[in-house]
Specification:
alpha/beta; 2 domains; 9-stranded mixed β-sheet; 9 strands
């Protein structure tokens, strides 16, 4: 069994909280940093439980769960990437292997360009890189509509639109925004506005400027970058982001079992198998 040490590090505009799981026996393998955005450390418990033989770091991104965003603190993809660097620097464990999910997989691309000495292998699992998709303009308009809905109508209606977006497969058609808005109750979401506007996804990650990866720098990077997709998400926005990153880097995407959150079994993903996902991740990391 691993022992867990919780630490905090102050960064520009935020106080980050992160955990280090120390293995009882030293395996000689590189430390593993498992992260997402806006998903915090708690979302990866089922995955990291299968890596008790190595040091594992998880963290809460700025503004999520235990990590506090200061009143004047900003949130951008680049700042998230710099935060990843500062966590590893504070922990003193570089170089690390990284499994980065969703927004974390996108923003980690800034990290490995700015601080390549930190990372040996980056597995970017379904990063929603809309800026490199052919329908990027429509994706940005849909994103702006979700943000406007959140500000005007609140959490339930906005998250329902976000869920509808991630469930859509294929290119976003020109008439996408002309379609009826989804009923939040269909997804078990509240229909009444409670007045809060502090959801990490809707108020922060979706509201930041579109993240533009430096593709030329990534192609020339000394870091081994592994774009990854899930077996059950083909055609979805995040799946297409992972596939597009692979094309831009001239590689084939690595396929993992399950959906966008294939590392966690939950009511939203009852068929996901965290053990199989972890086994696949081991294969990918060991191949490097």
């Amino acid at each position: 069994m691993s022992t867990i040490e919780t630490r905090s590090v102050r960064v520009p505009g935020a106080l980050l909280t992160y955990d280090i799981r120390h293995p009882d026996a030293v395996s000689g393998q590189r430390p593993l940093f498992v992260l997402g955005s806006p998903m915090a450390a708690s979302g990866f418990e089922q995955l990291v439980a299968h890596f008790g033989d190595r040091t594992v770091i998880t963290y809460d991104p700025r503004g999520a769960e235990r990590s506090v965003l200061e009143p004047d603190g900003e949130v951008t993809g680049e700042l998230h990437g710099e935060d990843m660097h500062r966590v590893v620097e504070d922990a003193g464990v570089a170089p690390v292997d990284v499994f980065a999910s969703s927004g974390g997989g996108a923003f980690a691309l800034h990290w490995v360009v700015a601080h390549p000495q930190d990372v040996a292998t980056l597995v970017a699992h379904e990063p929603p890189l809309t800026t490199i998709l052919p329908d990027r303009e429509m994706a940005q308009r849909v994103n702006e509509d979700i943000i406007a809905t959140y500000q005007h109508d609140g959490y339930g209606p906005a998250l329902a639109k976000f869920i509808q977006l991630v469930m859509h497969t294929g290119l976003l058609p020109d008439d996408y925004l002309d379609r009826p808005a989804p009923d939040p109750a269909m997804f078990g979401l509240p229909t009444e506005d409670d007045g809060s506007r502090d959801d990490p996804l809707l108020s922060k990650n979706l509201a930041i400027p579109p993240f533009e990866p430096d593709l030329d720098a990534l192609r020339a990077s000394s870091v081994r970058i592994v774009p990854a997709v899930g077996t059950d998400g083909e055609g979805g926005l995040a799946w297409r982001g992972g596939a597009a990153l692979a094309r831009e880097l001239g590689v084939e995407p690595v396929v993992f079992p399950g959906d966008h959150g294939g590392f966690t079994q939950s009511p939203m993903g009852p068929n996901n198998d965290p053990a199989a996902f972890a086994a696949r991740l081991r294969e990918v990391l060991d191949a490097g």
